[in-house]
Amino acid sequence: MMKRRSTSFQNRSSHHQYWKRSLLFVIVLCTSICVGSFVLLEINRPNINLFMPFPNLFTQKPKIAFLFIARNRLPLDFVWDAFFREDKDKRFTVFVHSRPGFLFNKATTKSLYFLNRQVNDSVQVDWGSASMIQAERLLLEKALVDPANERFVFLSDSCVPLYNFSYTYDYIMSTSTSFVDSFSDTKGGRYNPKMQSIVPERNWRKGSQIQWVVLNRKHAEIVLKDETVFPVFQQHCQRKSLPEFWREQPFPVDTSKQHNCIPDEHYVQTLLAQEGLEGEITRRSLTHTAWDLSASKDRERRGWHPATYKFSDATSQLILSIKEIDNIYYETESRREWCSSKGKPSPCFLFARKFTRPAAIRILNLSLPSK
Ligand SMILES: *[C@@H]1O[C@H](CO)[C@@H](O)[C@H](O)[C@H]1NC(C)=O
Ligand SMILES: *[C@@H]1O[C@H](CO)[C@@H](O)[C@H](O)[C@H]1NC(C)=O
Ligand SMILES: *[C@@H]1O[C@H](CO)[C@@H](O)[C@H](O)[C@H]1NC(C)=O
Predict the structure, then answer these.
(1) Is residue 366 in contact with ligand 2, taking CB distance under 6 Å?
(2) Which of 78, 312, 365 is the best mutation target for the ligand 2 pocket, counting ligand atoms within 8 Å of the beta carbon and taking the most?
(3) Rounded to whole angstroms, how far apart are CA atoms 274 and 280?
(4) Which residues cross the membrane (predicted)?
C-alpha cells in the first residue's frame, strides 16, 4: 500500500512535470513561430507595410536601386549575379528597361536577380534621342515606389562593377549627393536659343549620358516629376546628323554643327542646374569609360569612341589601372577633380565599361579569389 501510494505520488509528480514541460514547449514554439514569421515577412515583403503601427521597430535598411538600360538582354548578367549574391542583407533592388517585346525569362537570363524585374511598358530607345530620358523616367517611376530605395544607379548592358557589393554600397551611401558628371557647355553650338524662355543658356550643362549617373531620392523625384524641362528637350534638343559613333563623343570635336544636341548628355545636368541644385551633386561619374585608344591598331576602336575591352584586354593590370584613378581632368573647364569618399582620397570609379562577355568572364575569374 505504502509502495503503491508512493508510486502513485511519483506518477502524479512526473505527470505534473510532463505538463509543465509541454506547456513550456508550446510557449517557446509559439513565440518562435511568431518572431520567425515576423522576421520572414519583413525580409520577403519589404514593400508591404504591415508594421505601420511600429515604424521604428522594423525600420528598413536603405537600399540602392540598380537600373539597367539594355538594348535586349544583359550579356554581363552573370557578373552582376555574383555581385548581388554577396549582399546577404538585400540592400538593393533591380529594374531593367529593354526594348518592347523583349522578355527577360529563364531562357534569356540565368540570373534570378533579373527575372520579373523588367519595366513592362518600355519604350523603343533610339540612342541619342529623348527616348533615353523616357526610359530613365520609367525606371525611376518603378524604383521610387519602394521607399527604401535611396540611391538610383543607372547602368548599361556593357558595365561591370569594379568592387564588391559592400564597398560599392558604402561608397555610394557615404554621401547624400548625386553623382552627375556636369560641366558648363559654352563652346559648342548645342544650345538652341529657342529654349531660352524656359531654359536660359546660363543653366545649360553637358555631361556624360544618363546611363552613368547616380541620383539620390530627392533628385530622382525631381527627374520623374519634371514637366517643364523635358518637353523643351523633346522639342528643341535634337541631333542633327548621325555620323558613325556620333553620340559616343565625350567632347565637341566639330563645333560647327549647329544645335547638334544629344538630349541624354544634357538633360539631368541641365535640369538640376535649372532647379538650383548643383550644390547637391558630386560633379563626376562613377562609371569609367576609356575614350581614346590611340595606341590601338584596330581602326574600328581608335579615336573618340568608347573603347570596348575584349578578352585579351581584360587583365588584372587593366582593372588595377582603372581602380587607381584618383582624379579626373575636365578639359572644357580646365578643372581637375580629386576624388574622395568619406572625406578621404579615394578611387574615382566603381563601375567600368565597355566589356564584352568573354572579357567579363575573364575579369570575374580574376577577381574571384579576393571576393
Ligand atoms: C505592368 O505591370 C503592372 C503591375 O505589375 C500592371 O498593373 C500593368 O497592367 C502592367 N502593364 C502591362 C502593359 O502589362
Ligand atoms: C580561371 O582561372 C583559372 C586559374 O586561375 C584558370 O585555370 C581558368 O582557365 C580560368 N578560366 C577562365 C574562363 O578564364
Ligand atoms: C570588399 O572590397 C574592399 C575593397 O576592395 C575590401 O577592403 C573588403 O575586404 C571587401 N569585402 C569583402 C567582404 O570581401
Answers:
(1) no
(2) 365
(3) 13
(4) 21-41
User: Ligand 3, residues 86, 88, 162, 167: which to mutate, most atoms within 8 A of Cβ?
Assistant: 167
> Is residue 16 pLDDT above 50, yes or no?
yes
End-to-end C-alpha distance for the chain, whole angstroms? 75
Q: Can you read off the three cell numbers belonging to residue 271? A: 535640369
Q: Output the pLDDT for position 259.
A: 63
- Ligand 2 centroid to residue 358 C-alpha, Å: 12
What is the DSSP code string of 118-173? B-TT-----TTSTHHHHHHHHHHHHHTTSTTEEEEEEEETT-EESS-HHHHHHHHH
Say how many Å lie between the CA of residue 75 and the centre of ligand 1: 25
Report the residue among 164, 320, 346 best suited for mutation to probe ligand 3: largest number of ligand atoms under 8 A from its CB: 164
Taking CA atoms only, the protein residue closest to ligand 2 atom 6 is 365
For residue 21, name the pLDDT band (cuts at 50, 70, 90): confident
Domain ranges of the chain: 60-240+258-324+350-365
Per-residue model confidence (pLDDT) at position 228 = 96
User: What CATH number is given for 60-240+258-324+350-365 in this structure?
Assistant: 3.90.550
Closest CA to 143 of 133, 132, 154: 154
Q: Is 83 touching ligand 3 by the criterion CB < 6 Å? A: no
